[in-house]
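Data deposition worksheet. Section B asks for the primary sequence of the deposited chain exactly as it was used as input, without tags or linkers unless they were present during the calculation. Section C holds the resulting structure in token form. Section D is free text for depositor observations; keep each observation to a single sentence. Incomplete worksheets are returned to the depositor.
Section A, Depositor: J.P.
Section B:
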Amino acid sequence: MRLASWNVNSIRARSEQVVAWMTRHAIDVIALQETKCRNDEFPLMSFLAEGYDVAMAGDGGYNGVAIASRIGLDDVHIGFDGQPSLRPGEAPEPRAISATCSGVRVWSLYVPNGRRVDDPHYRYKLAWLDALANVTRLELGHDPAAQIALAGDWNVAPRDEDVWDRDFFIDRTHLTPPERAAFAEFGRAGYVDSARPFTPGPDTYTFWDYTAGRFAKNQGMRIDFTLCSPALDDRVHDAFIDRTARGADGASDHAPLVLDLS
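Section C:
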């Protein structure tokens, strides 16, 4: 199985590019984030034409997640128990979807950005990660042999080497101790950053801001991850970050992350 995750930053603007990349790299399952469209606006035919079924959750705002699979797409769930809302009384934003694909429980996750440490979005981000950790910890605790992939844009850089300049991010989000502690909870629950051994060291970024020529200067961040349960991690035999996809004309500001499973 070849499993990918990609924040596409608007699937309507990039559906042909995304599907062409999927077919070129023989992707079996992909977790998509920041699709930015309602379900009835999703460019479904582009995926169906290449043999992919799609489950999606979107409201037309700046969020939206989806999973596309050509090896099965069963037991689809949108959101998760205890998923918080940004404001009391509002419905949870479409930031999480999960489905079983050929025996693997695949999640597509778009963790809130946080914006600034003094912003309500920051507290929302920490609450969101805490609620997700509770659910996924229970899921793995119920079945330690379960094959689970928590794939997506986590908006956290867990190590200093995951950013181009640590000093630049002082007092900014993505690297604060509470965010890193929230991310570390998934590791304590047993989930593994399965791509890290195959993409080691600094400069293995997944995101480059559009501004200030960040991509040309390689001033990026590693904030996209696929955290695997131990049973699934045992199947991972290779991984790569496709930087060339970020450099294409009209590309997303994120690069896709790919895992190869035996």
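Section D:
Residues 120-142 form the longest helix (23 residues).
The chain has a mean pLDDT of 97.
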